[in-house]
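Input/output pair, single chain:
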Amino acid sequence: MHRRLYSLGCCLFSASLFLGCGRGSAHPELVPVTGTVMYNDAPVAGAEISFFAAGAPRAASDITDAEGKFSLSMFEPGDGTMAGENIITVSKMEGGSASAVTATPSSGPPDPTALAAMSQQRMKSGGGAAVATGPKSLVPEKYSKRETTPLKEPISATNNKIPIKLVD
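Output:
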């Protein structure tokens, strides 16, 4: 009898902890952000865009649609990014998104097993030597890294519709 009550008590306690935690820790206050990415006066479809706010637990990001439009998400679809200065990166790789090739702070490092398989495949097809080639960037590469992008934007409730024009 005591064993059943003890088990029931443990289950109820665990369930209350699980339900009480909900989303884990409280998320920071976010500002919904939308915009359009243009390059050579044309919308950039399928580009990976990320906004990095100081002190943010992760980047807010999205993939642009056929019209180059995006709506940032940090925790939930369309929830936005933190207010304040944001560094913006934009990348678009031939044959897919950049996240399949490069690591971002929010996605972590690439899978070592996948990298080893790619390296072995390159060695087989390249006559025994690994060829240091990869997907071609379809937008200027300076925009793809936080250290080199010139794009910065002070995000606020009144400055949250961001047009991004990429130039060579």
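The CA atoms of residues 45 and 66 lie 5 Å apart. Strands lie at 34-39, 42-43, 48-53, 60-63, 69-71, 84-91, 152-155, 161-166.
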